[in-house]
Amino acid sequence: MIHLARTGRGAVTLEVKSARALLLRGTCLMVLVFFLAQTRSTLGDVFGDERVETSSIGAKSYPLFNRQTEPTAPLAAERPVGEWEAASFVWINLSLPSVCKQPEVLAFYREFIEVVSQYLPVVVGLDFQSAWSWPRLREELVSDAAAKRGNTHFFDSRCNSYWTRDYGPGFARAADDSLILVDSMYRGLEDEMDLFASSLNELEGYSPSRNALLFQAFRSNGRRAELAPLRLANVLRQYFGYTVDCVRPKLYLQGGDFLTDGKNRVFISEDTLISNGGRESALAETFRYYFGAKEMHVLSALPGNAVKHLDMNLKFISPNVLLYAEPPKTRKGGSRSSRQLETLATRSLESNIAYLRERCSDVTLVPIPTPPIWEESVEEAMLVLSAQVLQLVCKELDVDFDSYWYVEKPGPDHAEVKEKVDTRLASLVGHPARLSNRSDLNRLTLHYLKEDLDTLIDSRVAGSTVYRTYANALLIQVENGPTVALLPRYRAQEGESSAAFRGWEMQVERAYRLVYPNAKIHWIPTDAMALQGGALHCLAMVVPQGKRR
Known about the structure:
Helices cover 42% and strands 18% of the residues. The chain has 2 domains: 5-81 and 160-375 and 465-548, L-arginine/glycine Amidinotransferase, Chain A, CATH 3.75.10.10; 378-464, no CATH class. It has helices spanning 19-43, 96-101, 103-116, 134-141, 144-149, 164-167, 190-193, 208-240, 270-275, 280-291, 336-359, 378-397, 401-404, 414-429, 438-448, 453-464, 498-515, 527-530, 536-539; strands at 2-6, 12-16, 77-80, 86-93, 122-126, 152-156, 170-174, 179-182, 201-202, 242-247, 259-260, 265-269, 295-299, 314-318, 321-325, 364-368, 474-478, 483-489, 520-525, 540-544, 547-548. By secondary structure, it is an alpha/beta fold. It starts with a strand and ends with a strand. Helix 12 (378-397) crosses helix 14. Strand 7 (170-174) and strand 8 form a beta hairpin.
């Protein structure tokens, strides 16, 4: 049996329940053991011996890696790079399928490029192999004004993910001020060892060749994201003339969960600590050798079904000023799940602030508001549950669901199918069923989904929650020019006050102007991207200036 599942931000995994899969899993584990034995002797066991060997790496390739991805020894890093240092350009990466299919995503990137290109070059990565409609898309993506500036450039990143921050590199400075590009591991090795994890959607109807294609697509996209930092380094050398070296620590790190004061501190969440084996002292050594960081601090990410990255609730805007997200505002008429999540978020955020006040007393902490948690409405949840019930009824009656629930116009057999389905529903509730009626729908979910309606609604709403955070913003320092802040704008939803959102935006602007009174502040509508789990900081990377060759 084979399943398809999403494991966060568009990643797709499959589960293969067969003797062949178990044999392959065992083989992969043996390969991993061999890999660990090989790397231990050259890199040092960062997570075991709490040391990093600084001698050069041998020329041979390790299993599961090649010369483009295998870990390397560190270089002499002096300090991590802060986001407020002079920028050379801003890098974004496009997921062409999403941009082509979702007008709101295209509109987001069009406005982003229009704003940023006023100040700096915009370097856009994409997979040229999937750019079948590239000439038309380019016209829609780059406005006439941005096109006239001539500073929007495209390169083949061979990657189809727009979460640039997560698989992009970190940056450190060497003693001579040259850039060190730190390329951590983005994919966990278990993705390929376990092949495909458990899921909710069965693919029993797919042919074996189709399953193989799905796996190859998953593995290819993951590996391509892993290689994007190398292609970015090529852009830095070839087009900007910078001296830049790449190093690859044995470190699993997504860039949204890495913050720094640009001097000697780095900040990560518990999630990154656990993903690297849980040995805090060993992980601190890795950051010291590869980033030049003298201190590592571990904080809490936001709870619930959210990305576990600190850039969702914290934002350094200078070495000594840190913006922190206040607990989310209470949503009027919010669900039980959202109220529980507000309580957990408040506890987590307050714990972080208490820690920072004690351990980083030289840092000024500035609060910024957080809008209410966005969640699927009860009406939306009921509509989805109604569709699930109807699908099961149609399967039970051996009729085509599409003939009942048509999109454009009813088919020739719609009336016949509708009569069969309505008769079956009436037999279960004792009268003509109304799926918009909670009592009727509750009876049907108990029968077909084996759970009461309130529990199912709470479960769906809890899984749909989205944090709309102002901390996930972008700070750009133009050399001999202004400081530019790109801030995410959220539209008030039903039952929310537009005036309240305008007031929160004014508070955020005041926080930035404490440090940058003359900053150029631009608000970018970000709802389309927030619903997918991120905002401006997740989707873009400000690439610092380097040392010229």
